[in-house]
Amino acid sequence: xxxxxxxxxxxxxxxxxxxxxxxxxxxxxxxxxxxxxxxxxxxxxxxxxxxxxxxxxxxxxxxxxxxxxxxxxxxxxxxxxxxxxxxxxxxxxxxxxxxxxxxxxxxxxxxxxxxxxxxxxxxxxxxxxxxxxxxxxxxxxxxxxxxxxxxxxxxxxxxxxxxxxxxxxxxxxxxxxxxxxxxxxxxxxxxxxxxxxxxxxxxxxxxxxxxxxxxxxxxxxxxxxxxxxxxxxxxxxxxxxxxxxxxxxxxxxxxxxxxxxxxxxxxxxxxxxxxxxxxxxxxxxxxxxxxxxxxxxxxxxxxxxxxxxxxxxxxxxxxxxxxxxxxxxxxxxxxxxxxxxxxxxxxxxxxxxxxxxxxxxxxxxxxxxxxxxxxxxxxxxxxxxxxxxxxxxxx
Length: 395
Hints:
Oligomer: single chain
């Protein structure tokens, strides 16, 4: 292993001795730089270094001809700086070669995990199948850079709402965080880092006014679904999600304690919803407990309704409320609580939110209440404003 001061001329003049397939030249000017020359006339630059654990590694810098001597020396200095920080470029390259593609990771690791850990895993599967994997699925996870993610966001925002694009970004970020936690080979950073979420200006805000509630409830009795007149009021009186009401069981209702236990809400932890006087009267009018464990069984199947959209749409249309969504009943429930003086903490507990920031989205204050608050301020400041008025206009 001869040590020489490498120059372009020395490289051209060096020949592999007869009977040998290659020769290695170590540069005396740049420690660690090695040039391997082969009898075929080709050659490769390497960095020879010792890891912090005492292992000797060879790190390929590039082929002779594609990389000149000056560039090879610069590459060695760059890698030495990384090694000084405790990095191991040779091991990283080996990991990168073993890194799975994003599609393989999604199918073999992420989705099986999500099916066991997330109730909304089907949404993740749809986002992967429609938006992420067609564009990034064939990339090794080690190859995906922040630039690739920016390109994905830019492409999607041309055709989809910001909320959809944000869900894609959140999912990709979560998948890479899991890959880092699971120490997937080649995944050393999250390429979604520092990529901001898009501003969502399309948030739907719809709250029922008292006269609209009367119109809607009047149409429920005319529905072809005989249980709609009970289902919709229970949604409005509890602020529960539609799926929670449709899957309610009699065994989860405690009329003595006046509590409804929701065993598997969206948050994943059981919560309890109080049964108000109005809801108690509503439930006592039902006789489904005589033949079904479900509070609202489908008369045709005996099982819970999968959905009530057709009956709901007919009722809201007849009531002149075609833009009203079922989830708006939950919005209205929260709004009524806020407008009647209940705190965000109390509303958070009633809605079953784990984060107070989620509850703040429902904290709508009616124009009447805001006007009343402004008038209260005016009454407090009235003496001062009258004194200013008595002084007359300035000259």
